[in-house]
Amino acid sequence: MATTKIWDVKAHVSKLLAYVANKNKTTVELEGKRVDEAERLATEILGLPPEHFATEEKKFVTGINCTPDNAKEIMLSLLDDTDKDDIQAYHGYQSFKPGEVTPDTAHAIGVQLASELWGEDFPVVVATHIDRGHVHNHFCLCATGFSGKRYHDCKASYKLMRETSDRLCTEYGLSVIDKPKTENRKHIAEVHAKQKGTPTVRDQIRADIDAVANYEYIVKYFYNRMRSLGYTFERRGQYLRIKPYGSDKFFRLDKLGAGYTEADIEARVRRNAQTMEWTKIEYYKPTLQEKPKGLRALYLHYLYLLGAIPKVIPQNPEAYAAIKDDVRRARMYSEQAKFLGKYGLETKDDLIQHALKVDAQKKALCKERQKLRNKSRWMTEEDKQPFREEIFAITSQLKTLSKEFAMCKDVYDRSASVERTVMLIEFPQLLEQEKQKAAPKKEEREDR
User: Fold this and answer.
1) Of the candidates 97, 75, 103, 104, which has an alpha carbon nearest to the alpha carbon of residue 87?
2) Are 76 and 166 in the same domain?
3) Contact 241, 235 (CB under 8 A)
4) Which end of the chain is least crowded, N or C, by CB within 10 Å?
5) Higher-confidence position of 443 and 377
6) Same domain, yes or no, for 150 and 9?
7) Are residues 9 and 161 in contact, defined by beta-carbon separation less than 8 angstroms?
8) Dist. CA 81–CA 16, nearest whole Å
């Protein structure tokens, strides 16, 4: 079994060659070691009999279209017209399963792999590193070939590298990695969100699809209802994609997981008609008689509206998009609500005054810390220790104050958008009033 990887290198090609052909990595030095240590290296790490090293004195380094000694000169001559900021070489990697392959076999596979992939036009140095618990090959591939053409690294070229490596491993009797099952893959953002316990955009799309698919029993009405929630549909080739309100990104339905392909969703909707089982979407009904008083009251009410994956479904798509977007920030809003309650900050003026107070404390502590640093500058290590402890304590205080100052700024900047979203949800008539104000008057339209 071998894993492969390749990436571009913009540093000087000599640095890569020095690393790849490092003597300490490509040979085993037995001088000065006990015999039992040599046997341990041979049997446990490399899987070879000790006598192998008595006769094998070469380094596991081979040049293709060059030698290890003249590789630098040849590559630099080919890179003569290349800008310093451009890619100078490509660093390839092929790692084998520990204990499955000997250095000789690994090196033979590496040389054959490099010859098939790049041997027609590019100078390459292949080196087998045996300094770790697993044998692995490194490749230094010059970015410019003898024909003057540049190597093009892309998905297709990497796929060819991986497939060739797997074929050679199979020919040498080694295991290969089974092809991963793409249907069970998750986007990295979903993995991180799951670790934090916060929903992602995909979670919210799935939740809306579930709610509407459980409600509708005619496919046409399903798409109309989704559009009324602010979603846009687009067909790209054979795939149907969906975009939430206010987003610039489309998501393929078949990438949302099992049960969310176009065929699966439409089958769920048709099943409702067959079984006569569907549920009604409950839109949120405004409960407030007047807007929340004070910043903390505003934030607490907003946290109630956010729920988990918003339990509140407003009538208008703008408010729905805003609340769904902020569900992922619910933890942050909770911390800000606690912060406002801790210091009794009810208005923006209170927020500004607290921020100024925190800023003054930060400046005073910075001056005190600098004095301590100046005093301890020429002291011995032993005399510096008490000063270091004081400096560390001040630094910890500064971190806390910096977080508070950043919290003040963030609440000040966000409070207007939070208030607007709350007002759109609790007082939807305000949206109509805004639209009427924004619309040009009849006289103005006639003049145009």
Assistant:
1) 75
2) yes
3) yes
4) C
5) 377
6) yes
7) no
8) 19
Contact (CB, 8 A) for 29 and 22: no
Four-CA torsion 260, 226, 205, 199, nearest 10 degrees:
-140
Phi, psi of 68 (to 5 degrees): -55, -25
The C-alpha atoms of residue 418 and residue 60 are separated, in whole angstroms, by: 64
Closest to 427 in 3D by CA, of 282, 297, 312, 291: 291
Cα gap 3→269, rounded to integer Å: 44
**Strand ranges (DSSP E) for 106-185?**
124-129, 136-142
For the chain, how many residues are written?
448
So what's the pLDDT on residue 195?
A: 66
* Average model confidence (pLDDT) across the chain: 81
Structural domain that includes position 45: 2-171
Task: Give the total number of structural domains in the chain.
Answer: 3
pLDDT at 157 over 90: yes
Is 393 found in the same domain as 340? yes
Q: Are residues 235 and 304 in the same domain?
A: no
Strands 239-243 and 232-236: antiparallel
Question: What is the domain-level CATH number for residue 27?
Answer: 3.30.930.30
pLDDT at 438: 66
Q: Tell me which DSSP letter residue 82 carries.
A: S
pLDDT-based confidence at residue 75 (cuts at 50, 70, 90): very high
Do residues 11 and 160 share a domain?
Answer: yes
* 122 shares a domain with 54: yes
Cβ–Cβ < 8 Å for 103, 131: no
Q: Do 358 and 247 fall into the same domain? A: no
pLDDT, position 435? 66
Q: Are 262 and 254 in contact (CB under 8 A)?
A: yes
* Residue 397 shares a structural domain with residue 333: yes
Q: Three-state SS across 265-327?
A: HHHHHHHHHHHCCCCCCCCCCCCCCCCCCCHHHHHHHHHHHHCCCCCCCCCCHHHHHHHHHHH
Q: Is 231 exposed, middle or buried (0-12, 13-18, 19+ CB in 10 A)?
A: buried
Distance between CA atoms of residues 426 and 314, nearest Å: 9
Strands of 2-9's sheet in order across:
2-9, 89-96, 136-142, 124-129, 61-64
